[in-house]
């Protein structure tokens, strides 16, 4: 009776100790696979020629090992489809002096199980957004972006007048839209809007002041700039504007990533004057007098924002990476 009960007791001990250890190992491997898949996808989004955008990516191995408590893990495979913008990473357990992908068991040996295979798989996708939310309801002309990605600071005039962008006018009368301000129609109660490039249209909203519901967004940007950072946002790019005021329509062609340095609107803004009046930016970047606009630069940028439908990477370098499984 004692011998029979001892076997049962060791069996339950194996369930508690060995199975618990396997679950912990699995969690570490999954964290490593997730991190490796995201890291490889980000590298591929920036450059398909990167040495880390490869099936033998050293970056993937590094993330797999760094997410293991003992620093030991191995990459079983990295499957890349560069044309589709997908990557799948499979990780396996590794013990010092042990067989790859297997974990040695303790109490389960009494039941005839010396080791167990443990692994994890994760997938990620990259591409440029073709539909999704914008955190700030502004649109810019394609000629303000073309040839300026990774360039210097520029002032993006949003309301025509003497501060309109010379030679860059996809709307009449020197402004994106007469009676408008380059603002897009917002989602009710939110700062941003929603853009679908398949429809290729975005509604307009008039006004010189900061858009409704956007004070908290601008305050967050101001705090980041004050701390020495640069908030980067994905903004829609239009190649045609028709109509007037709130009845106008922007023909949206793509998204671009914009690194914000300052801005100037009118109205009762609660923001510091350096961000409202941007006099700190001299020369062609200064935004004074009747100028209404945003100062910053277009950059190559990989976002982890959720909620976007992805398509092929566009030439403006605005990309999104997300987990698929």
Describe the protein in words.
It is a single chain. With 325 residues, this protein is of the alpha+beta class. 23% of the residues lie in helices and 30% in strands. It is built from five helices and 16 strands. The chain has helices spanning 2-46, 58-66, 142-145, 215-226, 273-277, and strands spanning 74-81, 86-92, 102-104, 115-117, 119-134, 140-141, 154-157, 183-184, 193-196, 202-205, 232-242, 249-264, 293-299, 301-303, 309-311, 318-323. Strands 1, 2, 5, 9, 14, 15 and 16 form a seven-stranded mixed sheet that branches. Strands 6, 7, 8, 10, 11, 12 and 13 form a seven-stranded mixed sheet that branches. Strand 11 and strand 12 form a beta hairpin. Helix 1 (2-46) packs antiparallel against helix 2 (58-66). It is elongated, with a radius of gyration of 27 Å. The chain starts with a helix and ends with a strand. The model is unreliable at 160-164 (pLDDT under 50).
Write the layout of secondary structure elements.
Elements: H1 2-46, H2 58-66, E1 74-81, E2 86-92, E3 102-104, E4 115-117, E5 119-134, E6 140-141, H3 142-145, E7 154-157, E8 183-184, E9 193-196, E10 202-205, H4 215-226, E11 232-242, E12 249-264, H5 273-277, E13 293-299, E14 301-303, E15 309-311, E16 318-323
Parallel strand pairs: 6-11, 14-16
Antiparallel strand pairs: 1-2, 2-5, 3-4, 5-9, 5-15, 5-16, 7-13, 8-10, 10-12, 11-12, 12-13
């Amino acid at each position: 009776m004692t011998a029979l009960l001892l076997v049962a007791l060791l069996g339950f001990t194996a369930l508690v100790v060995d199975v618990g250890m396997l679950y912990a190992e699995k969690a570490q491997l999954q964290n490593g696979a997730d991190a490796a898949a995201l890291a490889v996808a980000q590298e591929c989004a920036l450059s398909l020629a990167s040495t880390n955008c490869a099936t033998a990516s050293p970056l993937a191995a590094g993330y797999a090992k760094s997410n293991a408590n003992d620093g030991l893990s191995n990459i079983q495979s990295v499957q890349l489809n560069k044309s589709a913008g997908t990557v799948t990473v499979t990780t396996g357990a590794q013990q010092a002096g042990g067989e790859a992908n297997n974990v040695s068991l303790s109490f389960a040996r009494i039941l005839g199980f010396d080791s167990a295979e443990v692994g994890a798989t994760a997938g990620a996708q990259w591409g440029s957004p073709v539909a999704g939310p914008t955190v700030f309801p502004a649109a810019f002309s394609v000629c303000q972006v073309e040839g300026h990605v990774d360039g210097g600071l520029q002032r993006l005039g949003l309301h025509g007048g003497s501060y309109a962008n010379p030679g860059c006018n996809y709307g009449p009368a020197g402004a994106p839209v007469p009676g408008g301000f380059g603002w897009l129609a917002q989602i009710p109660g939110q700062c941003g809007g929603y853009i679908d490039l398949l429809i290729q249209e975005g509604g307009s909203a008039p006004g010189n002041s900061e858009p409704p519901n956007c004070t908290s967004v601008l305050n967050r940007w101001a705090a980041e700039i004050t701390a020495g950072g640069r908030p980067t946002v994905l903004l829609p790019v239009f190649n045609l504007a028709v109509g007037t005021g709130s009845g106008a329509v922007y023909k949206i062609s793509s998204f671009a990533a914009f690194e914000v340095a300052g801005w100037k609107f009118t109205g009762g803004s609660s923001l510091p004057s350096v961000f409202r009046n941007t006099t700190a930016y001299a020369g062609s970047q200064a935004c004074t007098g009747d100028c209404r606009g945003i100062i910053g630069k277009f950059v190559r940028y990989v976002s982890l924002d959720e909620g976007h439908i992805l398509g092929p990477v566009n030439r403006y370098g605005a990309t999104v990476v997300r987990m698929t499984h």
